[in-house]
Fold these 4 entries.
Entry 1:
Amino acid sequence: MRRQDLERLARAYGVQPVYRDWHGRRVRVPADTLMAILETLDVPGIPGGSGEAGASGGTGKPGARATNAPSDPRSDPRSDPRPGPRPGPRLAAGPAGSNPGSVRPEPDESRVWSGSSTRGTRLAAGDRAWGFAVQLYSVRSRESWGHGDLRDLAELASWSARELRAGFVLVNPLHAAEPAPPVSPSPYLPMTRRYVSPLYLRVEDIPEYALLAGADRERIGRLAAPLRERNSTGALIDRDAVWAAKRAALELIYRVPLGPDRRAAFDRFRRREGDALADWATWCALAEAHGPDWRKWPRGLDRPRSDAVAQERDRRGRSMEFHAWLQWLLVGQLADAQSAALAAGMPIGLICDLAVGAHPGGADSWAYQDVLAAGMSTGAPPDEFNQLGQDWAQPPWHPRRLADAGYRPLRELMAASLEHAGGLRVDHVMGLFRLWWVPAGRTPDRGAYVRYDHHATLGLLTAAAARSGALAIGEDLGTVEPSVRRFLARHGVLGTSMLWFERNRDGTPKPAAAWRRDCLATVGTHDMPPAASFLTGEHVSLRAQLGLLTRPEDTERLDAAAAVAAWRDMLAGMGLLPAAAAGGSPDIAEMTAALYGFLARTPARLISVSLADAVGDRRPQNMPGTSDEYPNWRLPLTDSDGRAVLLEDLAACPGVEAAARAVLPVAD
């Protein structure tokens, strides 16, 4: 097929044959990549394409309309669609006495609005809010089992609200991993996005724990003891050890009969969750027997509605009930954490995080395989910080099949994510518009963008937020079409602005007044090194050691030093650093606080303070592009010297006080 015809066919099916890279250069997608993607999209005329996509007239000719392509010009973000009937609520200022901080419907959206909510997100007119951003597993207390849990979250929220006037706590995805070791560490590559990891349970907070015999409680104490000893060290988090101990303790508690009221509540939970919970519990039971990758299971178990799976459900009823019971407990403890946050005065409370996708062998990929694109992985093309591109090893939604399913899996996922939260951060929100697909066996730079009907996908998010009275936040960092950000803003979805990326065309820092208002402002993210690492240039050395640079290390180091110098001069000029600091080397903790003071001077609606930055942690939680080369997602919260920082230590930590003081004007 001629390249011209291939590109025309690709565009007809929502595949971009050309894109601009992080340098602004036009890049043509390799022909074999386009062919592989079109085959997956069932395009007629492509080897392997079934024709199910239903090109107009069934001809498969270039220019024939495809059902997954934009339905009209407004469906293409590049066309910058003007406001019309909108699929969901928007966050907008209202008349005096109204509540502009809450998500509320416009007149044409009343069909999705359910009135006021008790879940939070009630900012007074004109106010702004700040809060800590945390990787919860890394935030341990003296009583946690070597891994941060929902009690720790509740206490962090309560303390920061009462003592520091924080308005929210932003947490990493709490999605569930494998039900048996080895437990994958990444919160962004879960087995399911619908349910929560039992690693976050506080065992002693389960009501039936109090009913245990003394010997069983002593046994649980012995299980917890070695894990609690690790809390005081900077040793890596050992999820396998944590889960082995918690699983043993939970099995003991599970044997305690539920009282009538508790049994009735559990039964109601199971009925409410329906097939979604049954499928998760079934997958867990089968994974314990056959391993956590359904693609390697015995024949017949690969389809959730098969006769073989039905027989296994009958055989493994106890195991299924156990895993359903865990989710019921988790919902209760998550609700308690949100209640504690609101009771302490937070207007928002918990902001949860929704990962882009799930593991290809996991429960979601098993249950939703009919609406996923097999043989494809989501990722990102090369950019300034990830110069080799990224492959996230997650199958993307198949645009047409998802639409044919009425978007039910995505709608239910968003609703569940907001059930006990005042906000939802959607990681890589551009994925609601387009996703970078990487065909199996190819490197991340040999992918292509595939478009989705963003009117539908974004509408699901805004409708779910409206029903919950919650904020919707999109992580729109990196290479983003300006029209995408305009579209998000018009529909009430806050964007994300990161200090290191907010620069003028000449590379100089963007002035505070030039930042956008409708965003969550932050210094860095979980995929970026902590502030201390940036300010010292350690991140360049680390990336060089890991083989993640495509430019000479000296060039990277000079550019990094120039960026820090530019920020240092700007902060000094604003009075956030002593004038003597300009051209010098200020104290790292002092400059970190100044960076957050800068964020407070922007018009941003929300400001998140990385708890890792506040305590002086120097190690990145994640280095994209690595797996075993770096201990991603396994680092506990530590200070600049690598000493463990526990929840009880935060009140006496100078960096925490300094960061909070720097952003407190946001709460005034």
Entry 2:
Amino acid sequence: MSANGILLNDHSSLKFRVQSCRPGNRGVKRSLAAVIIAAAALIAPMTAALIASTAAVAAEPTAESPAKREPAICQNVRFSDVGWTDVTATTALVGQLLRTIGYKPSIIVLSVPVTFASMQNKDIDVFLGNWMPAQEADRKPYDADGSVVVIDANLKGAKYTLAVPAYAYDAGLRDFKDIHGFAAVLDNSIYGIEPGNDGNRLVLKMLKQDQFGLGDFKLIESSEQGELAQVERAYRNKQPIVFLAWEPHPMNMRFDLKYLNGGDEVFGPNFGGATIYTVTRQGYSAQCPNIGRLLTNLKFTLRGESEMMAAILDRHEQPDVAAAEWLKANPPTTKAWLDGVLTFDGKPAYAALAHAAPPPRAGGFEQWVVSHKIPVGDVIAVAIEKIKTHGTLLFDGISIVIRGMVEGVTAALRVLPAPALIVAIAALAYALRRSWTLTAFVALALLFILNQGYWIATLETLSLVMVATLASAAIGIPLGIAAAHRPRLFAALRPVLDLMQTLPTFVYLIPTLVLFGLGVVPGLISTVIFALPAPIRLTHLGISSVPRPLIEAGEAFGATPMQLLWKIELPSAATTIIAGVTQCIMLSLSMVVIAALVGAGGLGVPVVRALNSVQVGMGFEAGFTIVLLAIILDRISRPKEPGATP
């Protein structure tokens, strides 16, 4: 069969006739064109469908789809938490949410100024607690250089100003201008939160400028929880108190409080009305657009934040646990926050979250031990609460005595003009050490402290150290003597002394703050507890090291135990005992910064304030002042070594 016949038979359904296969034949050309057109008509719809299907598959997010995935660096999200419970709550919420969709958030506790400086250095990615306008001065330099980017407001309707309990408000303390009239019952004090905080700075500026006649008032700086402990103490005793307050916060539900009028020029209108913004470091949203979308979606409410904070403060839940419970109980809010957001591997976040399997629970022996936790913390908390409830009069009496002693020493030091006091301390140094070099150093060091503007703070610190050392020596030296004479007593004391020296010093501040309130009293008691082991141990060592022949000689001459102590043991152990007192002075001075966290004042305040506000100059000045004071006290109080020159 010819080729033309085969072609005709195969395509007999086509409505044309193939006459020849020669290239020059017109019929063949027309026939081939018709075949191509017909084939194209059949293939075109299938090709279009295939292209559309391929595009849809390519557009579908998968784990292998790099266009939909953020860079690996975006998986680690660094948040700043400035330590306020509202910021802790919101940061925990977002951190928990990110953790469930494949990210690895980390939360670092920093002050507000340090937060902005860290964002400028690209060490922090996100900050959810930019209270405006209170933090306007903090943020302004970084707005100017573009190193901090404002994403959006995450909460509106907040406020931040001074407040009082309702009973003080009803008594007439309703306005900023009324505060001065209550100066006596307020002890000329206003309570703030951590040193360096923006609200504290506004109050300090108000006091410095003598606004509302408050130039003779002082601001007691501590922390959010320290301030609230003092408010609770005053509230229980129906005492007037003026303190920094803000909303949202459970304090508005725990206490019947009123915000003071008339503070617009200090905190702004509407009781320091504030809007809280989410801010990031420069270029973060462009680098990590998925996180940027989530941050844009974030919108909190006053009620929602208060619920979270109540779980942390009132039910004592860990922030992560409280956040997980809140997210589980509020799915509509979670869905709104995750609108358009993907997991780190590129899947729709809310759908992935809804179908995520619960995390596996640990089992076995470890889980059994954890589930049967010994309630040490709960027992201590209950005991402190009962002591606080039933021992108010006792603790108030102790507070009055200790506060009176410290304030009395401070007042005595301040009676003398600074030049006269410098001369007196220099003369004391010469009388004790007989060294003109030391005398000149003491005078020049004190003149330098006066020149730097830390004279009053130095006197406050010196008073605290003197009273703490006196109390520690009065308790420690007799205990050391008794322990040296009674080995069983020292065996019983040894673990207690080990605990006092190794327990973190911040732990001392918690019960003393609850029992005695803010101020110099908890600072001094914590200092005494920390410094007390030194005189006990060194007194025990000195008495125990008295040569036995001396004791036997005294006994041979018929000396009584008391005579042996005063005539033989104490003179022989004097150098070691004085070394214990010197150690006590140094340990007391080392507590000065920590004591500032509970409102003790002194040189610790500018150190903490400089740390929280990134003021390098102030921090160096205050730190150098503490060093000079430590050298002066050490050189004056240390025992003179035989044959050594001062």
Entry 3:
Amino acid sequence: MSSLVTSVATALGACTLLTMAPNPAQDAPRTTLSQQVGAMHWDAEKKGSLLYIDPDLSAPHDASGLAAFDRHMACCGGINVIVPTEMVLIDASLSDQANLFEGLSRSDKIVYLMSTLTEGQWRKANTKGITLADLQGDQRAALASILPKSFKYDCYQVNPDGSLKGQGLDGEVGSDDISQVGIRFYRSLYLMVRMLNANGYTAAINDSSGKHSPGDTVIYRELGANESRTSLFGVTIRSIAPNGQKPSDLNYRDSGLDTIVDVPKTATVGQLVAMTSHAVNTPIVVDCRAAQRKVVFLGEHARAGDLLQAIALALTATYRRIGNTYDLTSDLAGIGERRARIAFWYDEAKTAAEERRDRWFRESGAKDGYEDMAYAAGDKNVPNDAIKQWISAKDVRGESDGLSLSELPSNLQDQLNAFATKVSDSQPVRIDHVIPGEQVFWNYVLPDGRQLETEGSLGSAEFFANHGYDWKSERPIPISPIDVSGKHASLVLRVADKEGAIGAVDSAVRHGFTKVWLQTTRSDCLDIAIAEAKRSGISVGLLVRPWESMPGQLVKDPDKTILGETAVQASIRRLTSLRAEEQFERPRIPLMPAFPTLGPTDPALSAQWNLISKLAGEAGVDEVSLCDTEPPGYELKLEQNGSGIYDRSMAVAGDLGYPRAMREQFLVQNGVDPIDIENETLLPSSNPEGSVDLTLPFFAADRAAADDLTKRWAAFCSESCAFQIKRLANQIGKPMLIEGARISRDGEPEGAVLLSSWSPGQDLPTYLGPGDRNLIGAGSALMVHLGYPMSPRVAGSVWQDLVGKVQSSPQPVMIDMTAYPPVEWKKTLDLWFVKK
């Protein structure tokens, strides 16, 4: 048996923690699938062998036949197999056009409706509520998409202490009457107070604070059970189809699978596949979420190919090939891969929809009907003149100048004092500095005119302002030359030929730098630069980006993202997305170019490490620096809230770590292909407006097991990367600067990184971010990236930041211009730095 097959069998032990718990027994008597098969009196000698999975699956006791278990009989070669009648399909092709309106949240649809209302329609919407009968054309279609098909409601009485007591006057609006239900808009006041033990403010008074008095009747709509979401923006993602053989990388009819296998009466899926894998000497791993399911076989032996096909059909599964190993899993495309692909598409469609939504906010806010919108009837928390004046001037005043407690109406003062007393132990606040504001809410109105409680907020009144801050209108910061004389500043340039090496030294000298770092793979370029630098009185260092493949190098197993894209392809995806401007331009990120990269398991790595070590050992190389030692995606702890700047799907689309060999190695060791590990923060179920049901029968894991897989994968990537970087550092064998591995990712990407001094025998440095004081000290350096190309807005921001760092950084500053081609670096240097 091959060592890889042995590892496959060993890996099955790692799957035990992911065993799916059986369904709880029902109160009524039930019949199991095993009992149903027993009642069939199956004769394997006459009918052939029979295989089925999940013998403890149950159905009502009085049910009969396989249909009661949602199963039917199928045939795979010489094996009869009991299989599910249906299978779940997750379509991530996203070939249909997104319907942007259908993908909007209910509140966003209401904002659209508001933008279309006439003066008369606004009057109704602000008072008794507007119904379908009051609308025309697209307006009616919009409201129809907002109204539920039917709903129930509950009536309560407000007790003296503010709690609610059921009145037993509950009701229901059926589908025949739903067209008579209206929606109504109203304003509500909120007051924010500053927290003493934390930064920022907290809401002390909100919509629910002052609307009701003891004895009032309030009506709440019952929220129905969450329906299974099958589509996003009108595009079907999840569907149910008759069960059938899925496309497979394993050819069940291959002559290599003609081996006859002795099959035990009972086994787990993992055990049975491992036995078959050994018999045909082909590495096959069962996804650990399905490996522990029970299999019953009535018969004595079977052809290996038929057996593997029968198991796949019984699990609505297939076999995916990764390197030399096959994986019994849900589909050829990974479920984690599909979730990431759908999430990226969804966020793109949402961005397009939100561009329209922002316009609808402004159009709604400009209407007289919006200005006439009142507070809810009975709401006692209404603004006095001081609050009104403060709110009207908020956009020019800002939040630094709040109102004092004495400027508020007495009822609001009483509520704030009570709030401060209530939270005095858990989160003390100061109530002498109050920030008021207004929100717009909406609610349903019953056919008889009674008002239901709020359905939710449409947003702050500021959203509806017909003016606002536009970051695109900002003037770029003007750039003037920086004088680096006497500063601990060095220049970092990329060179690919002798002319570039000479030009790099000349450029450094002309602009007052005492050191130039070269990123190059050519020893002759280093030699020429060292000779030129010696004559000019400056020094030369070697900068290494170890994972960047060498020019012209054949990369057999390139590093990829979960979407199957290289670093270059991922960069193109992100920079051409609808969110690119918001994600990169607005936060002033200096973008670095993407290059083909090697992964930690690439066969070419040894040759690359040898070349780097040779260059580092060149006579005259003053210092060596290893940067970008940990590509995105290799962090030990991937922050599940996305990164500090990128949104979740944008960050995941750029995460590397999925070269074929790494996937295969992790699969063999852990029983799951990494592209089947889902990032649950993408399309989270907690966001009903932007979630879709991606669960797959037979391949679902509980949250704890899913989290464990995520942590194991992150640790595997981090350790694989660190092992190779440590090997390279030891091979170079001399003190150098190293950009540390990240403990976590929060705030990526950055315009500057810290490099720490390292000597042979030491552990590799770890890195929390530019403010990580553990790395600041003797031997550390700060590298500032100048992206290319940069818009004037980004360039001005980067220049301003660079001026501060050059003038005040306690570490030497390395100015990284490796993104620039030689002709461009010369022009930029003349613009940014004083000539000597």
Entry 4:
Amino acid sequence: MPQRLRIFISSPGDVPDERLRADLVIDKLAQDYSRFFTIDGYRWEHEPMLASGHFQDAVEPPSKFDIVVMILWSRLGTPLPDHTGTRDYRGIDGRAPVTGTEWEYEEALQAARSHGAPDILAFRNVSPAPIDPRDVEARARSIAQLDALDAFWKRHFADRGIFLAAYDEYRTLEEFARRLEESLRKLIERRIAGESGLSGSAIWSVAPFRGLATYEFEHAAIFFGRDGAVAKAAEQLATQARAGSAFLLVSGPSGSGKSSLVKAALVPRLMKPQRITGAAFLRRAVFRPSEGGGDVIAGLADALTRGAGTDGVGLPELLGPGQNPPQLATYLRAAVGEPSFVLAAALGRLTQAGRAEGRLLAYEEAKLILVIDQLEELFTIPGIGAEDRQLFIKLLGGLARSGAVWVIATIRSDFWHRAAEIPELVALAQGFGRLDIAAPSPAELAEMIRKPAQLAGLSFEISDKTGLGLDAVLAEHAATAPGALPLLSFTLDELYRRDVLARQGKVLTYATYEGLGQLEGAIATRADEVVGALPVPAQKALPRVLRMLAAVTTGAQQVAVARSAGVESFTPGSDARALVDALTAARLLVASTDGGEPTVRLAHEALISRWTRARDQLISDRRDLETRELVERQQRRWQETKGRAQRQLLLRDPDLANAVDLTRRWGDELDADTRRFIQASARRARLRQQLTAAAALVFAALAVGAIYAQQQATVQRNRAEAATDQAKAERDRAEAATVQAKAERDRAEAATVQAQAERDRAEAATVQAQTERDRAEAATVQAQTERDRATSEEQRATEARDRAVATQSRLLAERASRLTQQGDTLSAILLSLRHFEIPMTVRPIATRLPRSEALPTRCTIIRCSTSSGMRGNHTFKQLTHTITRVW
């Protein structure tokens, strides 16, 4: 029998994400080592807060546990009193006060030093701590907490570069989870190796694989390999809830295992006690849109109230005495935006009962987890219209925002583009509201294959040639095949059924694997075996059964999808019913009850894509499936419409012709309502044809009389037209004369205007010419005045110059006379010439003339050049006379 292993988580309140991730890591280890240990995680939040004592008194001492994990970041916690009625709270060195975290760690440390147990793991987040820059008091408290944390850390782990004890530092949540899992796994493996009494006995006594069926809540123990995605989903959903909208959409391709991940991993882990602080998930409900029979609100109301609630399924407390699910559906339909009233009341009663029974702590509130599986059925079920889709998603949004319900939905990623049709769904999935599931890694595939087999005490054959186990080969083949999870699960289940159940063995063998056609051929092999074992008439019913259980989506891609069909569609004792029963017994089909009506559907859509016979049949029937989809969609609109407008929604050609042909070939394969709709459309079409024929006869009789009346009318019309033409001609001539007269008048007016313009220009020119004459006369007068003034000025200047010349001549003569008297005749002559400013040339011969010789009036001794520069009327003769006198 597995032993119990208890793990104590010690931390202040600033690491809620780490506490959640630590719980998820412990869940994974508990599942991995369930053959050896029953592993439990424990936190101080697990104990009730008693008003009669200190909360720390209710916490079990860490020394009583096998492993203690301490997680620190920016706080050390709140100081404890030195003493309570239960115990003393002092440090290992006797100091006081100490915080709860200090006491828990040092109490465990003292026990470990004394007895060698418990094992202690310490983790510290070294990313920057949050400090409020605006609140002075809050900032001071934060710094005080950091100082206290640093002092504690130096005391026990690292002081001035000296390492005192082992610890781990981390910066991200993923890094913390990885190191915590590695450390805990080493401690557990060491315990297994050190205790000979531990044995890994089988603890799962039935089939550990699900084939094509989905893993449900009760299969959590055998669902492996998706721990990373589960942890991320839980954290995103918790983040969404803290933001006020507890909604998560898990998206992935067909065959990615999203439904199993949610129902067998995420929901069971969230429903563990104290998993989310303040929330106690006491109830769960699962709903598929196809279960509502076309009315998704009524289907959801039925799913919410289904079950007794004792096993955690459903919330029947929603219904009071005398109430039923249809009444609840009416309420939900009227309050899609705010549906919390009735839910809060029911969950409030659960909360009170849980606290009274001691199952809930005082700060915990009962909540519901609602799973909407295969949300893409909103778009593939013919009975669900656009208005119902909008209403349903709005209701989910109201539930997610109510604070009472956490909503998790799954959808095939190839249908995500249809979300654009519902803006509310796009808004809900924003941010952390959507998680895309990727294909599993090779390591995850190995866990999915080996660990469920280990729980059941099974092993895999090892090849003599390659030395590889069959589990390794399966993992390799699955890693290379897209959407391989359904194939892998089905193959493993077939190996179990043939090697274990049929042969009573404990080893899954290569021979069986090869006989199945390996991974790709396993589904087809099994399906062909089941169908081939039936009588020929039942085998021939396969096309009918496939058409009933599959549909083709609208749009360009035209994807084949599974759909449910009522069991009564296959008449008991018929060949089709025999085939359905055989496929159901082989778990290739799944029987269920949707809204009280027994239904059957494909176990997985992989049966369509991987079974060649089914795939080819649906390809050949694609046009007929499209016609059926169109007819069913139009039939739904017809049923929802009342009054005269209903007749407008009946089928018309060419759709009616296709539908009638389909009815002829398929017969009762179409349900009775669809056939009645086609018949009503055909009757309406025939009535239209009869009315059209009758109308044609009436119109023919009327046409004869109409022809004669038309001929008479034509004669009268021709006469009237002739008179009209004549009157029109007269009117045209009158109008032409009027136009001509108007043109003449316009020309005359234009000539008058032009003549007036010419007169105006002539007058302007005359005025301008007169102005020019006046200006010229004024200029002439001014010029004459200026000439007179200049003449007068010239005369005065001449007189002044003559007076100056006379004065200067007199002075010059006097000076020349003095020079002559002094015997310097030449200087006297030159002085006279300079006075008159006459250019001259003196030749040397002048010095050879005798001073006593008479000087003629004109002599050649001095050559004088006269020019216009000589002043006044002084002629050369005057000059000669002056010179003579001087001489």
